[in-house]
């Protein structure tokens, strides 16, 4: 099959299913097919790489030259990017096809995809349920076979939680492994790009394209290029799996616990040994995150002022009025909530009490992991406390929504790599995700651990 035929087959399937799922915000069939023709020429010339000609979807947080790039917001409803994010140019260089831009929570703030200005995404397993978020469009697109694989970003769980809720695999790499250049910033000390796909093997191939040093991102790490597929087939004999007692306590649904425990039993059969560990400060990760992430967001989002690009209110009296009205009309409720919290915790008189305190606890959370990795090679637990919930179920209760990320957030605070792989089904026959957390730069081992189970 040629890349043009493959791309056309995906485009046809998208035309058929996307009106119902709302996984894609923007499609550009002519551009995708032109890329496919170029890929076919490259394949014919014998200059192909692993992903040459493969149709990939891109989360709408990545700037792609000539493509509408909205970040799920009205604020960027008319923003056509004049340049490519590093991740996008890596895929272009590899000869991959950009199939389209996927829906997401507004500015990646959310766990259900319901904060998108472009409407919620539906979970392909049950369209009355959410796909998770913020990379919900990507997760639904992969699960419904509307692309071969896709990109996501993860600030507090936005790759792993939707992967779990849609029954696919997703990897958040170590902070600094994938460049954030051209990836619209939410909370810069936490944001990481990563792949989402059907298998660990696909994620490894995606990582080979996405990872690597880029001098345009000051947090990009200068490391040798790795082949993330290199360890996929290693046996797991002797692997030490740490189970944090805090993850297996109250809060996790009985259905999720059952599926995760069955997966761990499977790992024992594959030769792994189980070690009981503790992450005593992990219970503080949600409150710490909801100080730090809004603080950084309030600063990052100050650039959206209606002056240079994006939404501008049609009627205003003077400059200050234009700023106020553009931001009041351009941002949704959750984004405004974060900006207000962030501005508050950074303000004079409260900085020491909130922001500084949260930074100190963040360090303690990271130290817990360092201690744990003296006893084990990987850590496992649930990705999310429940399977996919109903659309609208948590929409008006931000605290309930924030608790969706209770198992994923500590990983971002520590800068560690984490992934989610499908491990059976729970309540309402919806998929359950197993979370695998690795030590810094241990992505190849995590992919090995995932691949052996799959
Ligand atoms: N759900 C979390 C939030 O709303 C995490 C989002 C993310 O990882 N981008 O902030």
From TrEMBL:
Task: Give the quaternary structure.
Answer: Heterotrimer of A, B and C subunits.
Which keywords does this chain's UniProt record carry? ATP-binding, Ligase, Nucleotide-binding, Protein biosynthesis, Transferase
Q: Which reaction does it catalyse?
A: L-glutamyl-tRNA(Gln) + L-glutamine + ATP + H2O = L-glutaminyl-tRNA(Gln) + L-glutamate + ADP + phosphate + H(+)
One cellular component term (GO) for this entry is:
glutamyl-tRNA(Gln) amidotransferase complex
A GO biological process held by the record: translation
Report the Pfam families cross-referenced here: Amidase
Q: Which PANTHER family match?
A: GLUTAMYL-TRNA(GLN) AMIDOTRANSFERASE SUBUNIT A (PTHR11895:SF151), TRANSAMIDASE (PTHR11895)
InterPro entries for this protein? Amidase, Amidase_CS, Amidase_dom, AS_sf, GatA
Q: What is this protein called?
A: Glutamyl-tRNA(Gln) amidotransferase subunit A
Q: Kindly list the GO molecular function terms attached to this UniProt entry.
A: ATP binding; glutaminyl-tRNA synthase (glutamine-hydrolyzing) activity; transferase activity
This chain is encoded by the gene named gatA
Q: Which family does it belong to?
A: Belongs to the amidase family. GatA subfamily.
